[in-house]
Amino acid sequence: MTTVCPYDERDLLLQLQGGDEVAFGHLYDHYWASLYSYAYNRLRSKELSQDIVQEVFMDMWRRRETLQIDNLSAYLHTAVRFLTYKELKKLPLDHSYYLEFEEYLVSYIYADTAVQEKEYQQLLASWIELLPEKRRKIFLLHYLDGLSTETIANDLGISRKTVQNQLQRAKTELHERYAHYLTTLLIITSLLK
Amino acid sequence: MKEQANSQYLKEIIARYLAGTATAAELEFLEQRDMLIDKDGGDFSKINGPEKQDIKDQIKQRLDLEIRRSRPSIRFVRWARYAAAALLFATVGTEIYYYSQSNSTQVNEELKAEANIASSATISPGTNRATIVLDDGSEYQLSESQSGIVNAVNAITYEDGNPISTSAYTSATIVVPAAGQYRVTLSDGTKVWLNSISSLRYPVQFSGSERRVALSGEAYFEVHKDASRPFIVESDGQEVKVLGTKFNVSAYQTFPLITTLLEGAVEVSADAAVQKLTPGQQVRVSDGKMKLMKGKVDLEEVTAWKNGYFKFSGNLESIMDKVARWYDIEVIYKVKPDPNMTFEGKISRDKNIEEIFEIMELTKEIHFEVQGRSVIVMK
Question: Which intervals hold domain Protein FecR C-terminal (chain B) (predicted)?
Answer without folding.
Answer: 315-377
